[in-house]
Every structure is written in structure tokens, then in C-alpha cells.
Amino acid sequence: MADVDQIRVHEIYESIQGESTFAGLPCTFVRLSRCNLRCRWCDTPQAFEGGTEMSRAAVLEKALSFETPLVELTGGEPLLQEGTIPLLRELCDAGRTVLLETSGERDISLVDPRVHRIMDLKAPGSGESRRNRWENVAHLSSRDEVKIVLADRADYEWAKGVIEEHGLERRVNEVLLSPVWGELDPKDLVKWVLEDDMPVRVQIQMHKVIWDADTQGV
Ligand code: SF4
């Protein structure tokens, strides 16, 4: 079978969306294996290796079987696999609202325009800031969201500069600032955002509040 017809999957499950402007909604998660980055605070290292090789048709069938209007492809980094682009299109064709979580290191321009892309920009505290593909910023649209995970004040200052330089809040539906769980106190982030009148949405990972932070498959 060609690479485009095979997908390495870590898990497919139903839960509620924990982040983004879709937070709180029932959602089917298709978590793909493999990532080429190693963010210092990554909370899904279990998806780096292993996984199950499945046909793209079987992944589609399983994702649709949960019958949630919302489906998200995440990882790992979904855009490392050739089958991701056609799978996203097929999920849209099936009438689902489709989200893609991506690190921002891969080219996002080939993604079906019906997909809501939630693209990370990696702040210095991640250890992977040099991997940001800045050409992607030009491809962002009002359907998309940019997420920046912050470990400390230095990351916040970096985010502030990037938002201003690229006019991010005018390019996308929402700019999301998210504190590293257990590292940056959300109260500090809220204070800084209010002091600076930042055009952003502060978010915390809802699933970590509901379940234990290390629980998988939720
Ligand atoms: S890009 Fe995402 S999955 Fe990959 S290391 Fe960073 S946080 Fe983890």
C-alpha cells in the first residue's frame, strides 16, 4: 500500500476538546504517531514512537464512528504523514468540523481550506523556537488559530513581539496564550495580558483540570 494510504496512529478516542475556541465541545481525537520536534514541556511524548499502522480508510471509518460533529487530528505532528492531507479532506467531505493541531514546523499551505488549523509558534522556552516555519504565517486565515505555549515571562515577551510584528490577531480567528502546566502560574499570565491590553485569549488545558494531568486517552 502506498504511504498516502497508510497512517500510523497512536490512538483514536472521544472526549471533549480541551483547548482553542472549540474548548468544551465533544470531539473525536485522531492522535497520530511521530514528531520531529522535542519541546521541553511536551505532554504527549508517548506518541513519538510506536503506534499502529492502519489503512487511511480504516482511520476515517473509526473517526466517523464516534459521530461527534467535531474531529481533531493531532499528534505528535500529523503533517509528517502523507496520508494526513487526504484524510483531512475526507473528514470535511463527511460533513465534520475538522481541526488540525500542528507544530508550525511543516508547510500548512496544502491543508484543505475547510479545516481550522491550530498552529503553534514555539517560544524559546520550548527549546524548539528555531524550528518555526515563518513562511506559514502568510498562509494563515480567519478560520485558523495560533497557539503559543509560555514557560515564563521571557516567553511572554517573545510572544508579545511576534504578535505585534506579524499583526497576528488580524490574521487569525484567535491568538491563544497557554501557560506551561505546573510551570507558569496562569494568574501571572492573566495579569500580564491585562496590563498590556493584549489581543489574545488566555487558555488553560481543560482536560488537565478535569482529569489528572498525566491521564491519556481523554
Ligand atoms: S511539536 Fe507537539 S508533539 Fe511534538 S514535541 Fe512539541 S509539543 Fe510534543
What does this entry look like structurally?
This protein has a single domain, classed as TIM Barrel, CATH 3.20.20. The relative contact order is 0.15. The protein has 218 residues and is an alpha/beta fold. The protein has 6 helices and 9 strands. The model has no long low-confidence stretch (mean pLDDT 96). β8, α5 (186-195) and β9 (201-202) form a beta-alpha-beta unit.
Low-confidence stretches: none
- Continuous helix count: 6
What is the CATH homologous superfamily assignment?
A: Aldolase class I
Tell how many strands the DSSP assignment holds.
9
Radius of gyration: 17 Å
Structural class by sheet pairing and helices: alpha/beta
The overall number of domains is 1
Please describe the biggest sheet, giving its number of strands, its sense, and whether it closes into a barrel.
9 strands, mixed
**What is the name of the CATH topology?**
TIM Barrel
- Which CATH architecture would you pick? Alpha-Beta Barrel
General form: globular
